[in-house]
Specification:
Number of strands: 5
Strand order of the largest sheet: 1-5-4
Helix content: 40-55%
Distance between the termini: 48 Å
Number of domains: 2
Number of helices: 26
Strand content: under 5%
Structural class: mainly alpha
CATH architecture of the largest domain: Alpha/alpha barrel
């Protein structure tokens, strides 16, 4: 929100308003931005102090930070589906609030988008439509009328993706025979087999295993005609066109379509003893992963599928295991005014690591109780389980952190690297903490290095999970079945290795640099797998290159700087629409946001552009849009779950990323280097000898 239009009052608000006025005059007249530098210097210090105060006050008493993680309408819709399917009662007021949340996300065209202000998506819209009908909305309700008209204009509900087809089949709205096959016996395949459950990503694995029960039982909740959605199907194209064969007779698509036909036949005529063995193995796989409070995989789709699998296997709603699973799902529901927000998961490790990183750059004392609380919480959250990652990395001791409060089987490289970077910047000044957490720290460092892929890059949860041909199977029409190495993850680990004192000649770093050179786009940017998008990827890589000691004047780095400079908006900020995953036209283009502006600024500051007019304008953008409470507003989605399929709005991004950028700017202006990098410059490498020896 632009505070100019909200009526700023008081000396601080007046100062910010005056700065904005001068910036606008400078833009109109071409005056040098340095003319406002003196007044901005004071404002910069005030802004950083305010942002620090807000962020410190937002820390939970247990030591972590966390804020809502928002997605599209599919998650609350599926929450309603789950209750309907397993027959779990829901309080009327709770249902009303979820229904209102779904309705509030409807776009102007009548469909539901995957991100704010995005184009409507057929699968999200059909799910929302069914959820609203199941909740009692009349088909004559204007909300459903508009949605139905849009769905039919797009060819009808037959065009939805596989996961939506499964949901429709469970409610008798789609023929199970037409859903791409998933035989239960795949759980019995050895881990080295190309299509075993370990050939796909952690999130796919956690979703697929409970789905094996759903595919086996082919459950049906009979809906009366008035509660069904037959009106959404085009009689001429009831199945859509998602699974039409390729024009090339010999193609991966056609091969897998034929294989899918064979597997459907197998599912209709399974060998009884083999099917029984497969279902028993699937349940044995699920049970240890359901032991904690976080739910299966700690992500909503897997958690909901596990509840359905237990239901189909005879577990009642009152069974302790079912109650724990449902409780973990309910924990994802947050109050959002008069609506309820159903989160896809929670992000405390990620939020805490980034909040602490911003505060370190802002100058928070290593002796601060804020630091102690965060470090003790990190120590309590260390992963101790030899999870699924051991299939590819069997010899490494468990370590690191997951994304959520609890997800022991699935630590991830991104979170672990970010946590370790914060520790590396604090421990030189806190030998007591370094000593107390030496084991935690060294285990996590060794785990991260061991997870490097053979291509030189790093993925999020697994090593070498990159059999890309599997994306051709009909079940994988979402294109997010795998977890290959990515530039943003690789940049993050390089940043970590640099903070530990290693240079570009360290063998893992050298392999990673070769990978990043191959992955750089022609325009100089890098793809962002876990954030939107090329601005995010470029920030991650540049921060890593700077940390590991790559010269910022090298041509390939300068190309990245040129890319960012060319993407700045007239208002001084940066932004990128989620559509950049679909078309290069939107690469680095979109409405300005505080978080994406911060990523671009951090990149340019590391690149040596501290005094560049574009950086000055970017800093003024952040200062001019800072609220009185010491933070920023950001409504657009800047996080990525699965490109082109699922996006996220991290409510904490607007709090810590702008603070990080402003603080880095101040430190670069004052000392010519990042405070975080300065703090680790003299730290000895001896604690990391195990990394060097194992690399």
């Amino acid at each position: 929100m632009d505070m100019t239009e909200s009526g700023e009052t008081g000396p601080e608000g007046a100062g910010r308003a005056a700065t904005r006025t001068r910036v606008r005059e400078a833009e109109r007249t071409g005056a040098a931005l340095s003319e406002v530098s003196d007044s901005r210097r004071d404002e910069l210090g005030q802004a950083i102090s305010q942002a620090i105060s807000w962020l410190v006050s937002a820390q939970h008493e247990n030591g972590y930070w966390v804020a809502p993680l928002e997605a599209d309408a599919t998650i609350p819709s599926e929450y309603l589906f789950l209750h309907e399917f397993i027959g779990r009662p829901m309080e009327p007021d709770r249902r009303r609030k979820i229904v209102e949340a779904i309705q509030s996300l409807q776009g102007k065209s009548g469909g539901w988008p995957l991100f704010k202000d995005g184009d409507p998506d057929i699968s999200a819209t059909v799910k929302a439509y069914l959820a609203l009908k199941l909740s009692g909305l009349s088909p004559d309700d204007p909300v459903l009328v508009r949605a139905r008209e849009w769905i039919l204009s797009q060819g009808g509900a037959g065009r939805v993706n596989v996961f939506t087809r499964i949901a429709l089949a469970m409610f008798g709205q789609y023929d199970w025979e037409k859903v791409p096959a998933l035989p239960s016996e795949m759980i019995l395949l050895p881990s080295w087999f190309p299509v075993s459950i370990y050939s796909v990503s952690y999130w796919s694995r956690a979703v697929i295993v409970p789905l094996l029960f759903i595919y086996h039982f082919r459950p049906l909740v009979a809906l009366s005609p008035e509660r069904g959605i037959r009106e959404l199907f085009d009689p001429a194209r009831p199945d859509g066109e998602r699974f039409l064969p390729s024009k090339k007779f010999f193609s991966a698509r056609n091969f897998f379509l034929r294989l899918d036909g064979l597997l459907r036949f197998w599912n209709r005529h399974p060998i009884p003893f083999l099917r029984k063995k497969a279902l028993r193995a699937a349940m044995e796989w699920m049970m240890p992963r359901l032991a904690g409070e976080g739910g299966l995989g700690a992500i909503y789709p897997a958690m909901a599928n596990s509840a359905v699998a237990l239901h189909l296997s005879g577990y009642s709603l009152s069974h302790p295991l079912m109650k724990r699973v449902l409780s973990s799902i309910d924990d994802l529901v947050l109050s959002d005014g008069d609506k309820l927000l159903v989160q896809p998961c929670v992000s405390p490790i990620w939020d805490t690591a980034l909040a602490l990183g911003a505060l370190v750059e802002a100058g928070l004392s290593p002796e601060s109780p804020t630091v102690d609380r965060a470090m003790e919480w990190f120590r309590s959250r260390e992963v101790h389980v030899a999870g699924d990652w051991t299939v590819r990395v069997p010899a490494c001791e468990p370590g690191g952190w997951a994304f959520q409060f609890e997800n022991e089987y699935y630590p991830d490289v991104d979170d672990t690297a970010m946590v370790l970077m914060g520790m590396a910047k604090i421990f030189p000044y806190r030998p007591d903490l370094a000593s107390r957490m030496e084991g935690v720290f060294s285990r996590a460092c060794r785990w991260v290095v061991a997870m490097q892929g053979t291509d030189g890059g790093w993925a999020a949860f697994d090593k070498d999970n990159d059999m890309l041909f599997l994306n051709n199977i009909p079940f994988a029409d979402h294109g997010a079945l795998l977890d290959p190495s990515t530039a943003d993850l690789t940049g993050r680990v390089l940043e970590l290795l640099g903070s530990l004192g290693y240079g570009p000649d360290f063998p893992p770093a050298a392999r990673a640099l070769r990978y990043l050179r191959r992955e750089q786009e022609k325009d100089g940017s890098w793809f962002g797998r876990w954030g939107v998008n090329y601005i995010y990827g470029t920030w991650s890589v540049i921060a890593g290159l700077k940390s590991i000691g790559v010269g910022m004047d090298e041509p390939w780095v300068v190309r990245a700087m040129t890319y960012l400079l060319g993407r700045q908006n007239p208002d001084g900020g940066w932004g990128e629409d989620c559509l950049s995953y679909a078309t290069a036209e939107f690469s680095g283009r979109g409405g300005s946001t505080p978080s994406q502006t911060a990523w671009a600024l951090i990149s340019l500051l590391h690149g040596g552009y501290c005094d560049h007019p574009s950086v000055e304008k970017g800093i003024l953008y952040l200062l001019s849009r800072m609220g009185k409470d010491g933070t920023w507003e950001e409504e657009l989605f800047t996080g990525t779950g699965f490109p082109r399929v699922f996006y996220l709005r991290y409510h904490m991004y607007r709090h810590y990323f702008p603070l990080w950028a402003l603080s880095l700017y101040r430190n670069m202006k004052k000392n010519g280097k990042a405070l975080g990098h300065e703090r680790v410059a003299s730290w000895k490498l001896s604690p990391y000898a195990p990394i060097r020896n194992s690399a």
